[in-house]
Amino acid sequence: MGIDDEEITWLFCIRRTLMQMLRDRNYLVEDCEINMTKQQFIDANHAQKMRKYPTTLYFTAAKRNDDSDQICVFFSAEKDSSGVDNMLRPSMKAIVVFKEKLPNINKLRRQCGAEIFQEEELLVNVTEHALVPKHEVLTEEEKKALLEFYNISDSQWAAGLPWIRTTDPIARYYGLRRGQVVKITRHSELEGQSVIYRCCSHS
Fold first, then answer.
1. What does pTM read for this prediction?
2. Are 144 and 181 a contacting pair, CB within 8 Å?
3. d(CA 93, CA 60)
4. Where are the transmembrane segments (predicted)?
5. Half-sphere exposure of residue 66, counting CA atoms within 13 Å on the CB side?
6. Residue 14 and residue 123 in contact, taking contact as beta carbons nearer than 8 Å
């Protein structure tokens, strides 16, 4: 079954967002992957690779400074996570992109060991929206220094910082886990630059 131009464009946009997302999470993604043109996408048969039903392991990426820390990206046309569960290994980091809208998507995200996205959620990069401020995920060392600066103890940090939910689109883009802290920098013509910190919490 062929793939028409509209679906090729759809998949091209999804792939670009995925590549940007992984690089923003500090995975090793080359510039040529980010800057790939639609024609290069077509020539490399990426659309066909992303549409190998019912479920396909599309690609893997490793962290820049730790090639043992890898994440796998799957594309699936399943109606639930059953087909993907059989492919996941214990402790495997994985992103599963479903073609169809799934019922009880938030419940599925909690039950499945992988990160769950629907294709339409990846058509655009949410961090590039004009109204979305700059977000930076703090390392554990940076988080510790922040808590020490504000004199917040280990037992108080969750209550001492505003929250960002794990279901927030930005939290999902960066793959935030409970307890991680994100730095948010806003720019305003009236107030100049302001910085706030939020702690990731379960929804």
1. 0.88
2. no
3. 10
4. none
5. 6
6. yes
